Amino acid sequence: LSVCCRTVEPLEYYRRFLKENCRPDGRELGEFRATTVNIGKWGSITTADGSALVKLGNTTVICGVKAELAAPAVDSANKGYIVPNVELPSLCSTRFRSGPPGEEAQAASQFIADVIENSQMIAKEDLCIANGKLAWVLYCDIICLDYDGNILDASAFALLAALKNVQLPSVTINEETGLSEVNLKEKNPLIIRKHPVATSFAIFDDTLLIVDPTAEEEDLATGTVTIVTDDEDRLCSVHKPGGSPLTGAKLQDCITRAITRHKEVKKLIDKVIKSIKPK
Asked: Can you give the residue ranges of the Exoribonuclease phosphorolytic domain (predicted)?
């Protein structure tokens, strides 16, 4: 299959592969790209309270978590905050421009916010230090360094890995002065209550599902769908931004595959965390 055909008629080029149940990069339709994760001081950002670098094929995403102290909101006196932000800078792909976040970056940020909320991965009550007085704010910056499709899976994975690595100092409020006192020598890990994992599919010609699409595959697809599941095989959310409709049977197929993927990702995170724990 010539490169010329790929440039002139990319969809026809792809269809020839799909008929043979494979893809131009050699993967089967249900096969993920090589996935790696680096966490903490091996992962990247020394100034962050937790960080991780995730690679999904060529797609590379880094997540840094910064914890700051703030007063809780009046209507949520016993809760802290989690503020996610996904950045797709011009350096990661020619499809993005410098300047304010574009539509895709905004949609990705909203997706991550929904994953945090729907999965209840962190109970916001756990971030409260003193009711009505003091709470933690976790700023989660997810930056794409190299964009080759499936930004949602990579971002959700990087966020989870970075949060698993966060250590918060112990904070008390001095009764006499009313001021907060931070003990940097005593640190505690965040309580991660659920481990949501995203699994994305591209839909070709309204019927064919391929997992972990590249940027080229996303461009040629007639739709995409992202399934988020947790440790108990529970469905946290289905993200389907328009495009081809899915039958109930196809959706169920996606959910089954997402549950299998969840186990693989969780195993990978556990393995990396175990390897960096002090002996």
From this structure: 31-169, 196-259
Q: Give pLDDT, residue 4.
A: 55
Q: Which residues, at least 6 apart from 40, have a Cβ–Cβ distance to it below 8 Å?
A: 50, 51, 52, 165, 276
Which amino acid, residue 134?
L
Place of tokens 């990087």: 158
CB atoms within 10 A of CB 6: 14
Alpha helix stretches (DSSP H) within 132-247? 151-163, 215-220
Structural domains of the chain, ranges and CATH numbers in brackets = 28-276 (3.30.230.70)
Q: Is the pTM of this model over 0.85?
A: yes
Provide the 8-state DSSP code for 22. Answer: B
pLDDT for the residue 83? 97
Residue with tokens 């409709």: 245
Q: Residues, the chain, total?
A: 279
Buried b (16+ CB within 10 A) or exposed e, 26-56: ebebeebbebebbbbeebbbeebbbbbbbbb
**φ, ψ (nearest 5 deg) of residue 88:** -120, 80
Show Cβ contacts of residue 26 under 8 Å, excluding neighbours closer than 6 positions: none
Phi, psi torsion values for 27, nearest 5 degrees: -80, 155
The strand order across the sheet containing 197-204 reads: 208-211, 197-204, 223-229, 235-239
DSSP state of 40: G
Q: What is the mean pLDDT of each run of 10 residues along the chain (279 residues)?
A: 67 89 92 91 68 96 95 93 96 92 95 96 94 94 97 97 91 81 87 96 91 95 95 94 90 95 94 76
Cα separation, 167 vs 182, in Å, equals: 13
